């Protein structure tokens, strides 16, 4: 059964006019239920992740400042969010959602988090709408509990997974692969184990060939026994924060490649959603929904 982390707390409201599309966290599950891709039994509600798993990845002093709401104005500004206790609580729930989804994937082959993909969070700071890094926390949880020996992070958000790269820069048990817009945020890129910087306006065919040529060989060279997939849909041509030119169908084929590769090689995969900032919310929902439709098609 496909298990999906979702909680009403994911859609914690932000001030009117804020550019982060929080409504997608409610609209996406509604769409999946309406069309019959999933039913209510597919969803589980995350709780509060034990703090020991957060500070297993993040700096203790940074996490304390988050909880105490004592970040400086500069630190808050870099996150892109107005800091509040509700926001921190939401983030901790998202971390638990990804950890629990990572565990479900061990049983079912795949599991997903409606939120997550917070790859801009570093060990000791937040950036770019990311306070804590669910990809890193989940990978470390699996490794610490000897549930995986080698994790491959496949990050196909339009923005480089700079926080994830920094967290695992000296960790041979996690291989970070980021394929992103070369001239997009963040302007200073960290060093992933494999970075593929893409030119602006790249089309479906070119993008997909580059992905095949780089992702497929990693299974032989890295030999992962677990995959964490950051499947942001800000690669779309319509995305106002992206600079690529993928169609919704091209984005779907991207997801198909990753999911079929995991299924074929019997590697558990946890998917977290990442970014999506197209002006039409329907484009964001359709692109994200395709990932869930494919999960059902490929795995079940």
TrEMBL record:
Keywords: Hydrolase. Residues 18-288 form the Histone deacetylase domain. InterPro entries: HDAC_classIV (IPR044150), HDACs (IPR000286), His_deacetylse_dom (IPR023801), His_deacetylse_dom_sf (IPR037138), Ureohydrolase_dom_sf (IPR023696). SUPFAM superfamilies: Arginase/deacetylase (SSF52768). Signal peptide: none annotated. Belongs to the histone deacetylase family. This is Histone deacetylase.
């Amino acid at each position: 059964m496909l298990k999906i982390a979702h909680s009403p707390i994911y859609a914690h409201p932000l001030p009117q006019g804020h550019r982060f599309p929080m409504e997608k966290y409610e609209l996406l599950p509604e769409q999946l239920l309406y069309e019959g891709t999933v039913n209510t039994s597919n969803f589980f509600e995350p709780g509060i992740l034990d703090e020991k798993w957060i500070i297993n990845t993040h700096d203790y002093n940074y996490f304390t400042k988050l909880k105490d709401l004592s970040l400086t104005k500069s630190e808050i500004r870099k996150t892109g969010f107005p800091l509040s206790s509700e926001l921190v609580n939401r983030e901790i729930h998202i971390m638990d959602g990804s950890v629990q989804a990572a565990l479900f994937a061990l049983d079912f082959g795949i599991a997903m988090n409606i939120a997550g993909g917070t790859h801009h969070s570093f060990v000791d700071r937040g950036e770019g709408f990311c306070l804590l890094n669910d990809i890193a926390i989940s990978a470390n949880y699996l490794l610490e509990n000897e549930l995986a020996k080698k994790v491959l992070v496949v990050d196909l958000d339009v923005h480089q997974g700079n926080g994830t790269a920094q967290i695992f820069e000296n960790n041979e048990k996690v291989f970070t692969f980021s394929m992103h817009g070369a001239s997009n945020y963040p302007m200073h890129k960290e060093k992933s184990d494999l970075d593929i910087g893409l030119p602006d306006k790249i089309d479906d065919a070119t993008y997909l060939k580059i992905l095949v040529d780089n992702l497929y060989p990693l299974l032989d060279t890295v030999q992962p026994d677990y995959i964490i997939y950051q499947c942001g849909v800000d690669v779309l041509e319509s995305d106002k924060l992206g600079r690529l030119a993928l169609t919704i169908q091209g984005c779907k084929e991207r997801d198909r490649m990753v999911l079929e590769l995991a299924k074929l090689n019997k590697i558990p995969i946890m998917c977290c959603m990442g970014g999506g900032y197209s002006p039409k919310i329907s484009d964001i929902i359709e692109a994200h929904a395709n990932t869930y439709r494919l999960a059902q098609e490929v795995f079940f």
